[in-house]
């Protein structure tokens, strides 16, 4: 059990090599750079909050990284502005703009999940934190499945 828990952050930390865009030099639009940079940093932040969830004692120290996730989540609608729809070097699928209501629902769910994560950390409520962390991971995955190209 303990070994399985310890393996999780390692997996998350390994993710940038496999998930991150191959070329971080420059994309064609500053908003695309901003969202790719933020998404990449979220992988490291998720590893940090996951470690807090697996540790013992207070999880209040996770409030700071969780607050960053919550703020970034709130910025997603602006980072996927319509003007970026035809940018080069993006894995954002046209469905983001064709199905605007569906994408808005995904960003809203992600914002709610990360806000719950931050609130649980501030309240030092481990049970609520663990539930909000699972909800947050599901929100990452659900959005990628529908709105991000494979490569
Ligand atoms: C509301 C939708 C949505 C949510 C929620 C979301 N992502 Fe993404 N993510 C995307 C889209 C779309 C892209 C592709 C962006 C692009 O290429 O312009 C992306 C790209 C990425 C990338 C690749 C960045 C790069 O440089 O190519 C990583 C890593 C990533 N997301 C991690 C995460 C993690 C971790 C979470 C949750 C903590 C998350 N994402 C939540 C939609 C989402």
Give structural notes.
This protein starts with a helix and ends with a helix. It has helices spanning 2-19, 30-54, 63-79, 95-98, 100-122, 126-147. The chain has one domain: Up-down Bundle (Four Helix Bundle (Hemerythrin (Met), subunit A)), CATH 1.20.120. The chain is built from six helices and no strands. Helix 1 (2-19) runs antiparallel to helix 2, helix 2 runs antiparallel to helix 3 (63-79) and helix 5 packs antiparallel against helix 6 (126-147). The model is unreliable at 1-21 (pLDDT under 50). It is mostly helical and 151 residues long. 26% of the residues are buried.
Please supply descriptive tags for the structure shown above:
Four Helix Bundle (Hemerythrin (Met), subunit A); binds heme C; 0% strand; disordered N terminus; 151 residues; mainly alpha
């Amino acid at each position: 059990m303990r070994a399985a828990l310890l393996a999780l952050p390692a997996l998350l930390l390994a993710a940038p090599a496999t998930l991150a865009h191959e070329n971080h030099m420059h994309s064609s639009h500053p908003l695309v750079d901003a969202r790719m940079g933020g998404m990449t940093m979220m992988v490291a932040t998720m590893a940090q909050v996951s470690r807090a969830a697996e540790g013992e004692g207070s999880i209040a120290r996770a409030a700071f990284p969780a607050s960053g996730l919550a703020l970034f989540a709130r910025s997603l609608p602006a980072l996927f502005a319509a003007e970026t729809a035809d940018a080069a070097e993006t894995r954002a699928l046209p469905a983001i703009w064709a199905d605007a209501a569906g994408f808005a629902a995904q960003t809203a769910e992600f914002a709610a999940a990360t806000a719950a994560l931050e609130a649980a950390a501030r309240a030092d409520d481990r049970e609520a934190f663990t539930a909000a962390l699972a909800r947050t991971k599901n929100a990452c995955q659900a959005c990628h499945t529908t709105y991000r190209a494979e490569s």
